Structures are given as C-alpha cells and as structure tokens.
C-alpha cells in the first residue's frame, strides 16, 4: 500500500555551488596571485628562473566537471522528481486498483453468498422434491400391491361369476324348456277353450231343444236322444285332459259347464216326471 512518509527523500545532496566553493576558488586565486607576485619578485632578483606552467586548463577542467556534476545533479533531481511523481501515480493507481479489487472482491463475495444461499435453497427444495417423490413412490407401491390383491380377488370373483353364469345359463335353458311347454299348454288351452265354446253352444242348443220339448205333447223319443247327448257331453267333459297349469279361468269355465249340464239333467228328469205323471 502507499506510504508517502517513508517513500519521500528528505536528505538529498545538492550539486549546486555554495559559499564554500566560492571561498575555495578565492583562496586558489589568492595563492595564484601570491605565486605570481613571488615570481615577479624572484624574476627581478633572478631573471634566469624559468616560469611555471599555467593552471587555467586545470581550472577549466574543474569548472567543466563542476558544471557536469551540477547538470548531473539537476538531471538526477529531475529524474528523482519524475520517479517520485511516477511512484505517487503508481501508488495512487495501485490504491485505486486495490479499491476496485476490494469492491470486486466484495461483489464476488456477495455473489458467492447469494449463490450459496441459492444452492442451499435449491438443495432444500430438491430434498423436499425427493422426499415427496419417495412418498409418491411408496403410495404407488401400496396401490400396486392393492391392485395385485384386487386382481387376485377379481380373478376369484370372475371364476365365481363364470360358475354363476353357467348355472344361470342352465336355469335359463330350463326356463326356456318350461316356457316352450307353457306355450304348448297355452295352445292346448286355447284349443280346449274353443272346444268348450263349442260345448257351450251345444248345451245352449240342447237347452233350446228342451224348452221346445216342454211345449210338445209326447217328447219321449226326443228326451231319450237329449239324455244320450247330455251323457256324451258329460263324458267328454269329464274325460278331457286338463292342462298342467292351474288356470283359474279354465277351471271356472269347466265348473260353469258342469253346472249347466247338471241343470239340463235336472230339467230332463223334471220333464220325465211330468210326463210320467200325465194320464
């Protein structure tokens, strides 16, 4: 992280000339002046002495070196300032990047927490669904077992119903035979009723003949003939086979016919008694 207090350079050596450099140059000039004066004095005293070499090039070199050192110091100072600025910019950029990274890390942490929450919620929902599916599967197993038992019971019931159906078919066959027999008996009853109607007509005719005979004077031959007819009708009535079914209408008709015949016989006997009582 950025720490400006430690990164700043408080003590940097200055490369510019100061008072000490000027005092040193002054002293050097004084020494040179004294040396020149001494040389003049010595020349006067000893003109044969050779003059020493000049120090101007040396001082020029020293000045050039001083200027070079001053330029180098200024350039170094500029580079240090530039590096300080770059360092500050780098620190600011690093701080900004650190803040952005912290924000991104916080966002990522929030997303991770939200994802974990969603995963937890999804896991709970998935567990609940699995539990529900397990319950449904158990219910289906129970239903399958119930259906299997019901199918077994249905098979037994089907066999029982098949037996009942066969028995009903046998009963239906017997009923068909009985119905056919009843139909035949009904046909015979109808024919018997027709014959009974004929007998009733004959009895009615005989009743008319008896009434006519009662009006006649000597009806013995006719009475004998009527008695024979009545006996024949009575024997036919008694010997006629009755239907197996107890039909109330047929029985009532037979009783009525029997009564009519009995009444005719009584009338015939009464008529004979009347005829016998005549002188």
From TrEMBL:
Keyword annotations: Coiled coil
Residue ranges of coiled coil: 123-216
Superkingdom of source: Bacteria
Coiled coil listed as a keyword: yes
Name of this protein: ATPase
Native source species: Pseudomonas cavernae
């Amino acid at each position: 992280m950025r720490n400006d207090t430690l990164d700043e350079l408080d003590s940097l050596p200055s490369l510019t000339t100061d008072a000490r450099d000027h005092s040193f140059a002054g002293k050097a000039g004084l020494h040179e002046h004294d040396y020149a004066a001494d040389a003049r004095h010595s020349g006067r005293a000893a003109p044969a002495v050779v003059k020493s070499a000049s120090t101007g090039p040396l001082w020029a070199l020293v000045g050039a070196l001083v200027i070079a050192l001053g330029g180098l110091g200024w350039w170094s100072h500029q580079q240090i300032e530039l590096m300080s600025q770059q360092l500050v910019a780098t620190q600011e950029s690093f701080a900004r990047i650190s803040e952005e990274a912290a924000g991104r890390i916080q966002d990522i942490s929030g997303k991770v927490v939200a994802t974990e929450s969603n995963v937890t919620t999804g896991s709970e929902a998935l567990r609940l669904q699995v539990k529900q599916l397990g319950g449904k599967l158990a219910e289906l197993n129970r239903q399958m077992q119930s259906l299997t038992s019901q199918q077994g019971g249905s098979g037994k019931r089907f066999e029982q119903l098949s037996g009942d159906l066969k028995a009903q078919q046998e009963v239906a066959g017997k009923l068909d035979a009985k119905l056919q027999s009843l139909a035949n008996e009904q046909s015979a009853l109808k024919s018997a009723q027709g014959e009974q109607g004929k007998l009733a007509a004959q009895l009615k005719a005989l009743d008319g003949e008896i009434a006519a005979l009662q009006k006649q004077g000597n009806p013995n031959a006719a009475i004998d003939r009527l008695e024979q007819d009545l006996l024949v009708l009575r024997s036919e009535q008694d010997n006629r086979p009755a239907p197996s079914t107890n039909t109330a209408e047929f029985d009532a008709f037979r009783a009525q016919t029997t009564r009519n015949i009995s009444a005719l016989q009584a009338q015939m006997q009464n008529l004979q008694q009347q005829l016998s009582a005549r002188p």
